[in-house]
Amino acid sequence: FRAIVGNGVCPQLSGTSILVSVVGVPTITGIAPLSGYATIPFDVSGLQLFDVTTVQFGGSAIQTNIISASNTLLNVTIPSGALTGSVSVANACGFSAPSAQILTIF
Fold first, then answer.
1. Which residues contact 40 (CB under 8 A, 6 or more apart)?
2. Which of 13, 30, 58, 91 could bridge to 45 as Cys pair (CB 3.0-4.6 Å)?
3. Nearby residues of 91 by Cβ (< 8 Å), 6 or more positions away
């Protein structure tokens, strides 16, 4: 059982108890570099990034290696097959935020 209640609350059923986690909606404020080849690391800066579980490139749902994560910075590897476009992130509750900048992948 998983439901979203209000903005940023994600209750989960665990046995006979409901666990409620309050998480912030991830926000991307920048990406660097703005271009690169697949398999190189790059940074996503923003807020509420510590619990991000998914990073998408150009809307492609490709497995991405998250190297490190903090509240304000994600370091990830651009996966092979990633598409040029905006970068989006999602946490366990499914919230996502697209980047305003475009990442060009060669």
1. 77, 78
2. 30
3. 23, 25, 26, 48, 51, 52, 53
